[in-house]
Amino acid sequence: MPPPLAQPLATPAEYLAAERRSREKSEYVNGRIYAMAGATRAHNLIAGNLFAELRAQLRGRPCEAYVNDMRVKVQRTGMYIYPDVAALCGEPLLEDENLDTLLNPGVIVEVLSRSTESCDRGEKFAHYRRLDSLQEYVLVAQETARIEHFRRVGDHWVLTEISGPDAELSLVSLGCVVKLADVYDRVELPPVEA
């Protein structure tokens, strides 16, 4: 996470009230509010491509996908966060009448960057694992065509690494399969070293 904004600890209600008035997005962890930085072109393309593929495959089904602006709350830890992509099949549970905070994502995707990678793998994932609804957590590299797919199997998380031009990401809980070539469409990746 980036450094917290300089201020005393905030309550969840104070955070939500300020967040709903603000033009900039921020996240809330353990009473601290963290300003969100902008994303690179590659980051936006990857998140957009993955969202578009999921949205197309979920059309006509009782499922939904959201990109960057749907806030997720981890009720058991009190964290409010904006994943790059969140999706679920079934009825969405929303925190209140504002309909802007999802409580039950089935899939969360984070696009990795140098500044957020350790948090996405560590602190965020530790919070996300406390979501009973979460079945799959996906980390997408920006600088190489590689996806790490964590899937809940009972009380355990099983990791599958997906790479290569013909590889596919299978999101079992959504019934979707996405080709890596489509995830990285128009993304300029550095050449692979021999």
How would you briefly describe this protein structure?
With 194 residues, the chain is an alpha+beta fold. Helix content is 22%, strand content 31%. It starts with 11 loop residues before the first helix and ends in an 11-residue tail after the last helix.
What radius of gyration results from the CA coordinates? 17 Å
CATH level-4 homologous superfamily? tt1808, chain A
On the 0-100 scale, what is the average pLDDT?
92
CATH architectural grouping: Alpha-Beta Complex
Helix-strand pattern, N to C? HEEHEEEEEEHHEEEEEH
**Which structural class do you get from the secondary structure elements?**
alpha+beta
Question: How are the strands of the biggest sheet laid out side by side?
Answer: 3-6-8-9-10-11
Q: Please give the number of β-strands.
A: 13
Count of discrete domains: 1
- Low-confidence runs (pLDDT<50, min 5 residues)? none
Question: What is the helix tally?
Answer: 5
Q: What fraction of the residues are assigned to beta strands by DSSP?
A: 25-35%
CATH class descriptor name: Alpha Beta
Shape: globular
Distance between the termini: 34 Å
